[in-house]
Amino acid sequence: MATAHVRFLFVALPLLAQTEASGVTVLTTQAFNQAVLARPNDLWLVYFYAPWCGHCKRLSPIFEEVAAAPEVKHIRFGKVDATIEKALSSHYNVTGFPTIAVMHEGRTWEHKGARSRDGLLALLTRMQEPPVKELRTEEDLQSLQSSATGGVAFVLGVSSSPHPIKNMFLEVARTRQHIDRFGISADDKVLSTISPSSPPYVAKVAHREDAIILPSMDVSADKMVEWVMDNRFPQCSMLDRHNFFDVSAAGKPLVTLFLDPASFCQGEKVDCESRELLEDDTNAGVGAAMRALARELEPQKQMRFGIIDGRKWRDFAEDHLISVETMPRLLVIDHKAKTFQVDSPGDAATSETMRAFLGRVRNGEVRVEYEDYRGMPDRWWRKAVSWIPAIGILDFLPRYTFSFIALCTVCYLVYVLMMFEPMNDGYDLELDERPGAPVPRKSSKAD
């Protein structure tokens, strides 16, 4: 029996050493139940992957590097092969790879932010801090905003009198800690910086924007979460690969200004994620015009606004009928309806021309393009024109005209194939006439 135990330890120790060296635990369903579910107070960062997924292969070394980072404490890391642990992946609604999940105190949140080393470390830093930061000075408020996604934070202003909204605010902060930043202050100077309103109040604070106050203190936790989600983006976002999906999928059409940095930066390299494009007022004032338009229209909550580096997003722009040479350009994307509308060159020159374009969009005067199967006729036509430019003279015809012709052609070919009867008689004759082929026996009367 002792020999069996020694043999088991001899086999198991290399596996344990490998787990300790990487800092990432390989989670099967059984291991998940024992390690994660049985210890809900532990903070886990788990990523679901597929071995064939290219993004997963690039994320794995980053994930292991973060797990081994010295600044990470009291956090456990795990990975799940979703192609094997299908039931576990289905339970956590994993529909794409890689999916990173934060698990703590029986709650699970999907991390949709940056998957870089710095992005994951920032997430873990937030999760290790108190969900609500106490703001004693204006510098504390600025620090909170700087650490928030898009520079947006939510602050509870309190007075000496107790109010039930404080406990509700703390609960909302715990459920949104992985993605939003929250603060609380009773300091008069801090509160006067935010709003002239008397506390208690809940305010959205963001760089270069006036504070937005929660309309009523007599709300439920669900209503407060809904308000936070509706106000968690700045009036005009600097869009990149980390936040584009979240902003575009937030339930409202996204008005996107495509800029080419090279056109107004004299060839200097511009880091889009550093907000230089958003804060630059050059290029005939396009950046300032977009911000002014967002300040005017975003509070109506009918549209969201953003600026994007059109050169970095060249392929995406071209898929939406925008070339770098014609930028700046405006694009209105309705993620829910899977549609988009694009302006004409020159419509994004000033705030007045932008406002006029959006007015035409609201009035239904701008052609609606489709991103799904409904847009296939247009995509086919544009591809055909790129191959044979001469047929562009037929552009005035409805797109379904060409789809109908293509459909009729396909139906005709199918009909011809179904009606075609192969001629096997000659082939059989050739086989019979080959030298040495058996001679068919002639029938006799006896037969």
Automatic annotation (TrEMBL):
Q: Where are the transmembrane segments?
A: 400-420
- Xref: Gene3D superfamilies: Glutaredoxin
Kindly give the membrane topology term recorded for this protein.
Answer: Single-pass membrane protein
Supply the alphabetized keyword list: Membrane, Signal, Transmembrane, Transmembrane helix
Q: Does the keyword Membrane apply?
A: yes
Q: Which region is the signal sequence?
A: 1-21
Which domain of life does this protein belong to? Eukaryota
Sorted alphabetically, which InterPro entries does this protein's record hold?
PDI_TMX3 (IPR052250), Thioredoxin-like_sf (IPR036249), Thioredoxin_CS (IPR017937), Thioredoxin_domain (IPR013766)
Q: Which GO terms describe its cellular component?
A: endoplasmic reticulum membrane
Record bears the keyword Heme: no
Where is each Thioredoxin domain found?
15-129
* Protein localization: Endoplasmic reticulum membrane
**Pfam families recorded for this chain?**
Thioredoxin, Thioredoxin_6
Stretches assigned to coiled coil: none
Protein function: Probable disulfide isomerase, which participates in the folding of proteins containing disulfide bonds. May act as a dithiol oxidase. Acts as a regulator of endoplasmic reticulum-mitochondria contact sites via its ability to regulate redox signals.
Question: What's the protein called, per UniProt?
Answer: Thioredoxin domain-containing protein
